[in-house]
Amino acid sequence: MTTATERSVPKPVFTDAEAGAKEFPDSTARKFNYYSPQKRKQTHYEDVTVEVQPDPRHYLSQGWLYGFADGRGGYPLDWTVLKAWGSDRPVPERGPGSGGKGYDWPAHGWHEFRDPNEEWELSLYRYNANVVRQVNANVEAAKQAKAFEQWSPNWTRFVSQHVGAWMHVDHGLGLYLFANANRRGPTNMHNTAIAVNSMHLIRAAQDLALYQLTLSEEVEGFDGTAHLEAWNADPAWQGVREVAERLTAIDDWGEAIFAANVVFQPLIGELFRSQLVMQAAPRNGDFVTPTIVGAEEFDFSERDLRYTKALYELLTNDREFAEHNCRILNGWLANWVGLTVPAARALQPLWSQPDAKPVRFEDAFDRVKSRFAGIAEDLGLEIPKELER
Amino acid sequence: MSRQSVARAHQKIQELSWEPMYHTPVSHYGTDYTFRKAQKKDPLKQVLRSYFPMQEEKDHRVYGASDGAIRGNMFRQVQERWLEWQKLFLSIIPLPEISAARAMPLLFRNVPNPELHNGQAIQMIDEVRHSTIQQNLKRLYMNNYIDPAGFNSSLRNFQNDYCGTIGRQFAEGFITGDAITAASIYLTIVAETAFTNTLFVAMPAEAAANGDYLLPTVFHSVQSDESRHISNGYATLLMALADEGNHQLLERDLRYAWWNNHRVVDAAIGTFIEYGTKDRRKDRESYAEMWRRWIYDDYYRSYLVPLEKYGLVIPHDLIEEAWNQIWNKGYVHEVAQFFATGWLANYWRIDPMTDKDFEWFEYKYPGWYDRYGKWWENYNRLSTPNGHHPIVAEDVDYQYPHRCWTCMVPCLVREDMVMAEVDGQWRTYCHEACRWTDAEAFRPVYQGRNTPNMGQLIGSREWETLYHGWNWADVVQDMGFVRDDGKTMVAQPHLNLDDPKKMWTLEHLRRMPNLQSPNVLLNQMTDEERAAFHASYVRGGPAGRFARPE
């Protein structure tokens, strides 16, 4: 006969510690009470993002604890020259006997920004997982249908060189502009939206790179390294590359996001993706590339541009600094449009490369200029004369 | 994706990086380390095509468990003693997580290896995941646990409370100062590689033993991302070791990061695990036993020591001293006692210890009762208002401690307290290692070497000083730790919610003597008084006892 020794495990205990079991002060106070929602009710997104990044202007009574070598800690508001109401008020000084109070929440207008996409972990993984699944499915379906056999040598070359070159733009901006900027914004809502934007671009770059890998395996004679030569030496790409590199060199995070998403993406990104690749591909027997490039286009036009507009609209309508912000943004607009338009025009030779031609470059460029002008007007900004150069 | 295709895909995405030809990316963050370009491989070969669906699947499991917990009435079995401490933990931890995301750009311009940048970008978005999934867990607790007070005001409380301030080092240390010190050594080499074991593995196990299986669900999902981050840190460390000029800085940073993590994480997690549990089975591991296994054996002996042959100077003395603090000097018990002494300045309820707890402590830590038993009996006796003050203002032979200027945990192991005049102020430190951190490590010159990128310790570092001379009721009101009737405190030194008369209110605090900042008083003393005070302080303890007459 064997005897079983009792295993040592924690025992379940009935504690009745569930909501509503008793009534006492605060027993029904089941909302985060440290911030005001943008609309009538607090959203799930707000609950998981607002106030995670502290601010000594309202609650952070002991201030930042670690500083850089110059003694500044946290997220200085002057990492951009843009301002939201309250930005110029000094950080409350606390010392012996001062108490801990700062200004009433939110203390300044930066905290009023909410990402209209309501991005947090659940939404960003769901969205991006869906995109990569769809992209995979599209490529797989094309492989099974032998769709790449329809491609002419010219189109094959176009995809290897020019669609391939674009992934370098995505990768560079994703890492060195957007991921970099996720340390720079004044609130968690800004930095989370920016981090998600970064992942869209890095994912899009990888989508294109892996697409190239598939094509190298599926299409005879497909040169999987041609994108490097195009990016490094093709004169048509050097203007884009110069602007992309210049974007990663911007010190001010507010300028970097603005220049990338308000100027560069509409005038060059959409010009290349929507007006060239997605227009030309079907006429050249390619129904796959537009779905991959289109996924990135959707990232930008439906999500990244959306939060960008919300971010800057708040500033151009700011109750204290609207004029200041508009002046600066108009200056940035003129400067970056002036740099971007020549780079866009330098892409013009690409329009003549496919056998079946897309819409004319000038018509395509007119469309994106018109789209860009609409974005600028929505933000209350002036259309710079540099657009017509 | 098959393993083979992942390897090929990872190889392909290496073609994405490019050297700037026209403009150099902005460099916002400096370091005193030097790196040579080297082709260190990203060991995990993560590609977003497989990464996003993997994370989504992990989310499905977490959120499925969350639904199951609510449908299955998990909160009917959750120990309040445990959940109350989560009000502190879950107010702190989303900030370190999101700070780790913000830390990644500190490495881009300083670590010249594009392959590692890919891993760092994935770590960035992992950390966004961790921060928001933890906020979501707290939201679920707020909605479903019996007492939402403290959860509902979580992030304001955390930003005002001295425990939150202690915890914030485990976030701000990642994002400021020398980029490599912060984002690599402090964050990935020490915090993630060593201390996430106790944070995200040991503590969830204790949660499960207290009826809460959601904390393990969320935190094990988080921990499954940490191996990626540990690899990021390891690759950067090997690159740093390749340059001998970095060895002095590595030695400095490892000493600072190790000691600070020990002071902060062991204080908090040790308290949660030892004093937040109702599981008093004699064969369940104590925090000291967990620490020995997870940190001493797994981290120190298996991870750090093998790096010695590459020239890394390992702080053997501080690792042994951390163990000495935990095992011989009662560090965790001293901290828990202090948190309970100051219950009124916090935003969670602290359950008194019972005979069953005493028996367990005595079994696991022989001699515990002689040191701490009497004080906890007093805590129990004074837990409901009955004409007396909260324990901090009663005569229970407990000397209110001085703050450590560096780690901001008070100087609880009295004999180790060090005093120094630094930057024109008399400061107290809990240990010589903390004095060294402030007075020597965080300086623009280290051992005669210019370290212009090293950060600074800033801020109002003693909480008590902000409220010097204030009435306690005003202190608590100023911090906002009051329930919705406008008078009952969020914090209570017991778990009884049945009888309103047993709950402390602002009126009870109004009768207390005013709060005094030990540091303000220290700086008002003459040199002789200060020397005498120090001589007496270091003869005090254990358990906060005043020094006995010689």
Secondary structure topology:
The complex is a heterodimer of chains A (389) and B (550).
Chain A: H1 44-49, E1 66-67, H2 121-144, H3 153-181, H4 188-218, H5 226-233, H6 235-248, H7 253-283, H8 289-316, H9 322-346, H10 361-378
Chain B: H1 3-13, H2 48-71, H3 80-92, H4 94-103, H5 105-108, H6 114-144, H7 154-160, H8 162-175, H9 179-209, H10 214-241, H11 247-275, H12 287-304, H13 316-327, H14 331-341, H15 355-364, H16 368-381, E1 418-422, E2 425-429, H17 432-441, E3 445-446, E4 449-450, E5 456-457, H18 463-466, H19 472-479, H20 506-510, H21 518-524, H22 527-537
Antiparallel strand pairs in B: 1-2, 3-4
Helix pairs in contact in B: 2-10, 3-6, 3-7, 3-11, 4-6, 4-8, 6-10, 7-8, 8-9, 8-11, 9-10, 9-11, 9-12, 11-13, 11-14, 11-17, 12-13, 14-16
EC number (chain A): 1.14.13.227
Catalytic activity (chain A): propane + NADH + O2 + H(+) = propan-2-ol + NAD(+) + H2O
Pfam family, one (chain A): Phenol_Hydrox
Describe it.
The complex is a heterodimer of chains A (389) and B (550). Chain A is mainly α and 389 residues long. Chain A has a domain at 121-388: Ribonucleotide Reductase, subunit A, CATH 1.10.620. Chain A contains ten helices and one strand. Chain A has helices at residues 44-49, 121-144, 153-181, 188-218, 226-233, 235-248, 253-283, 289-316, 322-346, 361-378, and one strand spanning 66-67. In chain A, helix 7 runs antiparallel to helix 10. The longest helix of chain A has 31 residues, at 188-218. In chain A, 54% of the residues are buried. Chain B is mostly helical. Chain B has one domain: Ribonucleotide Reductase, subunit A, CATH 1.10.620. Chain B has a two-stranded antiparallel sheet. Chain B has a two-stranded antiparallel ribbon with strand order 3-4. The model of chain B has no long low-confidence stretch (mean pLDDT 95). Chain B is globular and about 75 Å long. Chain B has 22 helices and five strands. In chain B, helix 11 (247-275) packs parallel to helix 13 (316-327) and helix 11 (247-275) packs across helix 14. In chain B, a hairpin with a 2-residue loop joins strand 3 (445-446) and strand 4. Chain B starts with a helix and ends in a 13-residue tail after the last helix. The chains are: A mainly alpha (389), B mainly alpha (550). The interface between A and B is large, with 112 and 129 residues. Strand 1 of chain A pairs antiparallel with strand 5 (456-457) of chain B, so a sheet runs across the interface.
